[in-house]
Design brief:
- By secondary structure, this protein is an alpha/beta fold.
- It has 18 helices and 25 strands.
- The strands form 4 sheets. Strands 8, 15, 16, 17, 18, 19, 20, 21 and 22 form a 9-stranded mixed beta sheet that branches.
- The radius of gyration is 24 Å and the shape is globular.
């Protein structure tokens, strides 16, 4: 295999169209999962001008010639993988933050922060990924330990789900946050009638507002770092769930200058400024960027008890969570977007939030023939609300959330309600399609983890041994479609990508293993060998 890819590198670097050839690239003797309507296997694909011009058997070698012809000797090939829900730009920015994922205590958080602070004189200390649910003491930490260890810094630590911030007193003072501060759609957690340092949902925005904005150069670097990570994981399209106008325009300019090659489905953040601009401008689509949807937050996250539930949390009887966007505003926005022909993609975790969003969608979409509006996460859905999903309302879910949350979700929801959570098979049965993503950087950027969690319903340690709520596992073909064809459909892009078919963009990925036939226990060993966008090799694994 090593020699194959040494040859591939020599063949593909600098390959250009030539009048002596009728194609740019031929790959043959491969195991190609086309993911077309018949889910056919092929052995040969032919690329010209960034698109597939032929897909079939070895006989295609008699009809086409190319500057680059690669015999894969049975290596599996799949359509370019699509992450249907992630935070691509944020992933790039957080590469400069302290990684707190997996820290087993607040003391370990402090240790990691100190190690970073030793190498930096910056006045702001940023971190991401802490999760009190995996600590022995599962209560929220307080500002005291941050104040003691970092008296001269502004400390802002984003929770793993992105729906809470842990800050020190310097930040609270700079943001003018007191026990009397009120925030619609958020909560300032108090300790002894004073801000504890935990800011939930929109309250966290008060802390972020005092931080310096990244420069244009820093933004470009962030996007390029995120692209490198995405390509190394086989992703060719990313659905960024919430971008402002300036960020979308920067991505577009980098595409045009060819300084960014990954395809982006950019969801517009729900702000008055963004809506005023884009709803008036209308749908935007290039071969690398699509802007036709709005990202809305109905509620918060389950881990920080911000998800809006119909009944109180099992482990917090005085709380039902909260709505970030009140139901009446969700309904008003739904009518506005329906009139403009824009897709509405709403974050809904709790069963109360899902019920409110489904109700608003049903009313607004009564006359829309093919809106493909999405519920992002659809994490806890009451049985009575499941039937509201359908061809007009699609679930966009992240299978690794189920396996990350299973250690504490029962405590939050209680044994009677937890079976209504992470119900991916039921959602698929009602909608006919399901789009899969990771929600990175909440979870890791690895679509193989998505696939494994969807079909095996186990965490990265292989637990539970029998799988978690296996009635809602997806089949191998359903999971692959959710990461390719169905994700493209959820983006209105099924005619351009999502399968290896003539006329579609030549986005595809080569893996070390055939994930369609591997045992569950072997799936996680799968790695990306190479990633192609428009027939161009944008990533090759180092040998």
């Amino acid at each position: 295999m090593k020699s194959i890819f040494k040859v591939m590198l020599l063949l593909l670097i600098g390959t250009t169209s030539c009048s002596d050839y009728n194609a740019d690239l031929i790959i043959h003797n491969a195991r190609i999962y086309t993911v077309n309507d018949s889910f056919e296997l092929s052995s040969t694909l032919v690329v010209k001008d960034g698109k597939f011009i032929a897909v079939g058997g070895e006989e295609l070698l008699e009809n086409y010639s190319a500057a680059a012809i690669l015999d894969l000797k049975g290596i599996p090939v799949y359509p370019g993988l699509i992450d249907a829900h992630c935070h691509f730009y944020q992933l790039g920015l957080t590469q400069e933050h302290v990684d707190l994922r997996g820290a087993k205590s607040v003391e370990e958080v402090i240790t990691r922060l100190k190690a970073s602070a030793l190498t930096s004189d910056a006045k702001v200390l940023m971190g991401r990924g802490w999760d009190q649910n995996i600590w022995e003491d599962k209560s929220f930490p307080t500002k005291a330990i941050l104040d003691e260890n970092f008296p001269d810094k502004l400390v802002v630590l984003e929770r793993v789900d992105g729906h809470a911030a842990y800050v020190n007193s310097n930040v609270l003072r700079a943001a003018e946050i007191t026990k009397d501060t009120k925030v619609d759609g958020g909560e300032i957690v108090l300790d002894n009638n004073e801000p504890s340092g935990i800011l939930i949902d929109k309250a966290a925005d008060l802390a972020y507002a005092i931080l310096p904005e990244p420069t244009r150069k820093e933004q470009i670097t962030a996007l390029q770092k995120a692209e490198n990570i995405a390509f190394a994981n086989g992703l060719t399209t990313v659905d960024d769930a919430g971008l402002n106008r300036s960020q979308l325009e920067l991505i577009d300019s980098l595409h045009r200058s060819k300084d960014l090659k990954i395809r982006v489905y950019g969801m517009i953040s729900n702000t008055p400024e963004n809506l005023a601009h884009y709803l008036d401008k209308g749908i935007t689509q290039t071969d690398r960027l699509t802007i036709r949807s709005v990202k809305v937050y109905a509620d918060g996250a389950l881990g920080s008890r911000g998800a809006a539930l119909k009944k109180p949390y099992a482990d917090a009887k005085n709380s039902k969570g909260l709505f970030i966007t009140p139901p009446e505003q969700i309904e008003d926005l739904a009518y506005r977007l329906a009139k403009k022909g824009f897709q509405m993609n709403t974050h809904a975790i709790g069963d109360a939030a899902n019920a409110a969003v489904l109700s608003a969608y049903e009313k607004a979409l009564s006359v829309s023939p093919d809106p493909r509006w999405r519920i992002e996460h659809a994490q806890v859905v009451d049985k009575v609300d499941l039937e509201k999903f359908g061809s007009k309302i699609l679930p966009s879910v992240q299978p690794t959330h189920a396996t990350s949350d299973m250690g504490w979700a029962d405590e939050r929801l209680g044994e009677k309600r937890v079976p209504t959570a992470y119900a991916y098979k039921e959602l698929l049965d009602w909608s006919g399609r399901i789009a899969l993503g990771t929600d990175f950087p909440v979870e890791r950027v690895n679509p193989i983890h998505t696939y494994y969690a969807a079909v095996a319903r186990k965490n990265l340690d292989g637990l539970p041994s029998g799988g978690y709520q296996m009635d809602n596992a997806l089949s191998r073909s359903e999971a692959l479609k959710g990461m390719t064809k169905w994700a493209a459909y959820a983006n209105f892009e099924e005619d351009e990508k999502g399968s290896i078919e003539v006329g579609k963009m030549a986005d595809f990925v080569l893996l070390t293993n055939d994930i369609m036939v591997l045992n569950d226990s072997e799936l996680l060993a799968t790695e990306v060998l190479a990633t192609f966008v428009g027939g161009e090799m944008v990533y090759q694994r180092k040998q």
